[in-house]
Amino acid sequence: MLQCLCCPAGPDCVDQHGCLSTRFLEVFRYKVHHPLTSCVLGVSEVFAYCHKNKTLQRFQLPEVTDHFSSQQVVELKPNQEVRGHLLGPASLVLSPHRLWLASVGQDGLLRIRETACMDRYIELQCHSFRLGGVQSVSFSADGLTLLTTGFKDGSLFCMSLRIKDVDTGKVNEATQYSQSMAHLLKNIFNAENPVLIGFPVWGQETPASAEKPEEREVSGGTSVDVTEQDESYSSLPCAPPSHPTWLERRREAIIKEDNEKYSETKKNLRDTIKELRDAIQEMVRENENLPEQHFNLDVEEQRRLEAMVEQEVTKVRSDIEWDIIEKCYLRDILKRECWDSVKVKGRAIKAFHSEIEVQNFPLKEYTEKELENLRWVENIRKLEKAACTLQLSTLKKSAQEEEQGREGHEAENAALTGSFSSQLGFSNPYIYNQFSLQTTEQRINQITLLQDVIYRIKMAFNADFEVLHRQKVQELKHVKDRNRLIREMMLELDMNMELWEPSLTDSEWPERLLTVDDSEIKAEKYLTPEQKKEDERRKLEEQNRLAAQDDDYRERALDDMMEGVLEVKKKDILKMEIPPPEFVLTKADTDWSEEEKKVFREYEKKMKDLNEEKEKYKKALKIEMKKLQDATKDAAEEFDETLKKLLEKKINYTVAIYQEELKITCLVDSVLIEEEMTNREQELKLKLEKMLAYKDVTGEELKRHEHQVESFHEAYDRLVAQDKLLDKDFKKEFPDVPDQVADSLYKLFKRRPRVQKIRTQTDNTSKPSKEPRLCGSLAPDGFGKMLKAMEELDAPENIPEGLKPSIWERFCHVRRAKVESEQKVKMRALTLAEMQAFLQRRRDEDKAAQQETKNLSEALESLHKEKNQNLMDTMVQLILKQGQLEVSTTDLTAGCTGFILYPRSVVDDLRKEIRTLAEQKIASMVRYKNVRKDLIQLEWQHKVMRKQINDLNEKARGIKMLRLSGEQQDMAYLSKMAQDSRMSEQVSSLEKSIALMEKTHLQNVQQRIKKTERINRQASMKAEKNLVYEQQLPDMQVTVAELRHICGATALEDNKAAEAEERYREIVKKSNLEDLARAQAEDLDFLWAEVERLTKKNFPSLDQLKHH
């Protein structure tokens, strides 16, 4: 949409105040095809820029005629369209002489075209597009100079145009006009500048700031009586300027006319306002003397609000109490589970002068069940050891064997235990030998005993830890005592030195974490009224006690004369001072007498002795301070050495604990493997029992089916023999017929009608359950067709020539018997084939069951071997001595410094034995691998079949859950007549609904017509009222103008201050809103990015899907 405003010139275009009237503005609206971002108006034409198409367009405005309405919209089409800027939107500027058109955009280019031909243009790069391009462009008055400004580069670009092949007439006119305007403006400036210089200079303070002290004075004083204000307050606040403008003179004339015209009305209004002011002031004075109860207009509402506030306070207090109870309950649970249940709390000891930190082992106390289990295992081991000792007592050992046993006892003990716990003195006497763990029960008992060993090791270390922790607490106490003595000495020596004061950290004293000191509470403590009274009572007693101490004259006398002590101690020698004789202060040296000189010499001697005593005492104090500091340092260093030894001991204990835990892990792994094997064995046994029971059942059924097939086969053979006998006895049935006729009859006897043969199902073994039903259903149909066809063959017209009818009837009877016999043979053959196929399937199933039984037996046997091997091949943990190395098989260039030489024969024997054992192990591993492979394959097949079963069950369940619509159910269960009747009922109901809707529609139309008539009547009444109001409008406007003038004159200065404050608030508010909008925009961008990421995450593309 393009709008053009036209303002005609004339005396009627302004109102009485000299302002332009909006009634005389003519608006012309034009419709364009695409939105325009910038446009300039030429002579009966418009130049515009379309950012959507990035083109510069020229539109020709139509001529304005008398019948042209401002409400009419005219469609404009561009007369010319050329290519614009690549980066938009662009701005257009027309030169003063309307010959040149300049365009700038965000690409930083300035293009100048002739308005007569826009195809050609001059292009100049003024600013960088990276900094936003060009912001604005402007022509000079003569059109020969251009200025451009950039968005962000902070530069101003000026250029001059050289004229060639341009309409020089218009250019000269524009130049002359600009020169004349410049000369005119220069004359105006020269005339006005001296006058402006003579004006007084305004202060920097705004009227609002100048009035602030007055406002403060008014607010600080007493209330002002509005009736005491003079009527001159409503007069104009300032005198008119000495040189008023035309608008000011016009306004003064209008005001003077209004005053003369409405002077009586204004006087009445002033009297009325004065009466109202007096009444209001009287009410104000009366309100000041009324009690507060008179201002409470709604007592019930106040009580309701107070009750509501009290209820809300009660609710908040209840919520807080429940929150506190919940947190206390949670705290009690956590403390009971994680602190009270722990027998030895976890804590640490830190060194004084290093970063060493030693932690103890947190331990929970043995439960009754654990203690009972441990005692039960120890009792079992006692019985086993007693039995073993009885067996060993019956054996005799030679002295040489005993000596060798004593020599290798230490190495054997390390090999049997596999840890340092026995060397540390924490081995349980009931622990099994690592090579004697052959059963699962022994391994479980070994785990219990090893856990007891770990518990003993931790308890032993915790005992040493507690001793050292108490030692540190004691050392800290000694350090505090020494520091207290040192501070006393420093106070006597008037010294200031920073002392080293260590303390226990939270890790060293974790109990502090469960208590809260008053210094940690930042909030103000809430005291009940009873507690406040108790605190006030204690403070009063303390004040009374201090006052009583102040009134003790004996103590005050002792403090005044001897500083609170009855005898002078040695530590107070530094405070001692010998007062000089009185004459020293009152007389000069030359006026002293001999006696006074002698007294002064004695005074000097006493001062010297006192100073010597002070120096000796200071040296003694310093030596004592040094000793105390050295004692503190030595104690800290000694403690650090003890802590270092404790750290080494913890490392050894930790190694032993890790060794025991490694053995426990290996034993648990072996127990789990044994349990898995046991479960597998039970599973295989269960499968084998089921398979054997199934095989017995299938064997009995197979024998029964074989007997049935043999019996049926014998009956079939007899039937076939009887059928053949009928064929052989054919000629015997017709002895009275010649041989030639008998041969023709035999041919007819062999002839059979052509009917559809019954296909056997002997080869189809995929659907055994359907075969008997198929044969049974097809046999009667085939036999009936055969009998019908035989009746056609037995017809009299088929009798051969020369044959008697009696013979033909006998022949037909014999042939029919033969056909029936053949049909029976066929049926028996089909049944026999089906029975044989069924028997073959049962034999295959029996063979499969036998094979499955064999596989299960082999798997069970292999599992037994593996189980025995796992029991016999136990994992043993060994400890290498210091200096022994385990040679890597890959590092063939290892040094020989750590090797020991042995005879070659010993090494060869060991290698031979190793090879034999390795071959045996490889063979067992191969067997295990094969069995394992078969088991994995069977498990996989089992899983596949279970998945197939689940899929089929899901499909069947889905088919059962399918639902039919109402129409489908009608089509499925209703007959055709019922469907037609149902359809006719639906049609009749629809017709009734349509009739009802039409009736309702007519009623609604009538109601709308009545409502429209009523609204028209109301509109006519409103129009009449509007006419009356329009007649009263001029008088009311005059009254309002007078009142506005009066109020504006009285509150002009206040309005200026309020407007300035309001503008400042609007600027601050706008700035805050811009910051908020910027922050919200950033949050919105982040949220959109997160939404896109989650969308991509939750809805992946189709090409990323993997089809299995």
UniProtKB/TrEMBL annotation:
Residues 255-293, 593-645 form a coiled coil. Its main location: cytoplasm. This is Cilia- and flagella-associated protein 43. It is found in: Cytoplasm, Cytoskeleton, Cilium axoneme. Belongs to the CFAP43 family. Pfam families: CC_Cfap43 (PF25828). The keyword Cytoplasm applies.
